[in-house]
């Protein structure tokens, strides 16, 4: 789905009272976040290769659009969707996927560490995961803290923000290694596009002077398997063994003096 049609459909859901993340992303405030995130995901996935890639959550948007893996698909988290899945029990074989993207999945789940564990299960060795989340050290976190209780049931203020330090520790425990990432969206979380535009100058200033205070982060990590070695097929090993044992033609004493 393209950006314009998503905004139209999402706005209808949001105005209808649905406080989903997809609905919020269609608002000026959410679109401010979404435009930056899509650009970051594009950059993070474009050089990841393999055979299978999966996006978990927000199937209305294509966070894999710049990836060239031949088999790409999305799994929804909402029950009843065409391709719905439990992020703790993904319908995927172990070590069967080369790339997983998790746009704001962890902070919306009661067991984010277990979601990462399940992601590790389905990823191939050296497979990669791309994750986005709200930064706990930002103005967006302050906005969440001071939001009225009646409004904390709406996205994204109902989410449990996860600090990048904690996420990094979780990834490390599961055998992942960070290999890319960035912070973005430094303007205060205004609702109106007019005010967001007026504070656009904070994007460059923030990236230069307080880079870790961006409202959003997108990180990429690779699954490392220590001690892993490439196992060649049996027929290749047998061919190599025969070559190694093949007799080397010997020249006769007479031939050496001719």
Instruction: Round the mean pLDDT to the nearest integer and report it.
Output: 84
Distance from N terminus to C terminus (CA atoms, Å) equals 80 Å
Strand content: 15-25%
| Rg, Cα atoms, Å | 25 Å
Notable characteristics:
six-stranded mixed sheet; 10 helices; disordered N terminus; 258 residues; alpha/beta
Describe the structure.
With 258 residues, the chain is α/β, with parallel strands linked by helices. Helices cover 36% and strands 18% of the residues. The protein has ten helices and six strands; from the N terminus they run H-H-H-E-E-E-H-E-H-H-E-H-H-E-H-H. The chain has helices at 3-15, 21-24, 28-45, 112-122, 139-145, 164-173, 193-198, 201-209, 234-245, 253-256; strands spanning 52-56, 71-75, 97-103, 123-134, 176-184, 216-223. The longest helix is centred in the first third of the chain and has 18 residues, at 28-45. The termini are far apart.
Helices and strands in order:
Blueprint: H1 3-15, H2 21-24, H3 28-45, E1 52-56, E2 71-75, E3 97-103, H4 112-122, E4 123-134, H5 139-145, H6 164-173, E5 176-184, H7 193-198, H8 201-209, E6 216-223, H9 234-245, H10 253-256
Parallel strand pairs: 1-2, 1-3, 3-4
Antiparallel strand pairs: 4-6, 5-6
